[in-house]
């Protein structure tokens, strides 16, 4: 596309580098910004800079935070469990279920050789450090990773590191979603939901 | 959503104010920016500010431009026709067909009382000015507006202003798209394509 304007071109280029946003969407956003008052663009631009410069990661659980010590400690009532997740949104999602009040550990991704991400790029060493420093107070590690090949690889890697330690390793249940129809489930999921069936409770 | 981070919250708020981007997409973009090098966020932020501060509109045709005098004059070989469009992308789209080499006039929107946009908000007066100043050299006005109620309203308004002047008023053809199946066309479009049928040519 030729816009006859360097400024528009540059803005479209920058915006379309974001994931899921193509040139056409970027142009639509640019035209929207041009129609809004100047303050709108200013606040957008400032919040992006402030975000990138100011963001910190909790030195313990690696959750995104404004300070180096996040509020994770205050919200935890059970310090015997660590839930290992890939990224910060997973923490928010699990917290919002209200079913878990243990600790979290964000890996920052998953092992994916094709993208050049090995175990060293992830916060796996610091996970081991946390477990060792706890002097046995951590009794369980929940692997809440995505159900993809990379997620499974990461789970296997962590499991291997933990063998020998007296720690229960669990993973979140895979199965038919609540409200889901059996008919539309894929075979692997349905198969797993049968092999890992649980006792029926009437609560 | 509660991110336990003011910076993330502010960035998500700003980004999700853009059209077509919700809170979840905004969070995904924020997490993407955090994983990229700092320069990426910086260049995005700068290009938005530079765009908003530096952009100008051609004083004659109102196309988005970096200067007050755009390149529109140089590209025009036929100064007897003005094609009236709603926004700058329409100019780019029509130019890229290679079927038109006349002048353009961007209205900057369409008459839409429900959004508080009356004829005064659009560049209709300057269109009349251009036609009057041309001393009769403009022979035709093509109304290339969208086929919605607001587009039609705008077209009717301009037509009324032009009555009495010796100018041919045309509109782009409505009909079945090239390669389109009759079966799937809506009745109104199909009806219009019959009433405004053209002579069959074998070129």
Task: Please describe what this structure looks like.
The structure is a homodimer of 203-residue chains. With 203 residues, chain A is α/β, with parallel strands linked by helices. The first copy, chain A, folds into two domains: 6-54, Orthogonal Bundle (Helicase, Ruva Protein, domain 3); 73-172, Dna Topoisomerase Vi A Subunit, Chain: A, domain 2, CATH 3.40.1360.10. In chain A, 43% of the residues lie in helices and 10% in strands. Chain A contains eight helices and six strands. The first copy, chain A, has helices at 6-16, 23-35, 38-54, 72-75, 88-97, 124-133, 149-162, 187-195, and strands spanning 56-57, 64-65, 81-85, 103-106, 140-143, 168-171. A four-stranded parallel sheet of chain A has the order 4-3-5-6. In chain A, helix 1 (6-16) packs across helix 2 (23-35). The longest helix of chain A is centred in the N-terminal third of the chain and has 17 residues, at 38-54. The radius of gyration of chain A is 22 Å and the shape is globular. Chain A starts with 5 loop residues before the first helix and ends in an 8-residue tail after the last helix. The mean pLDDT of chain A is 87.
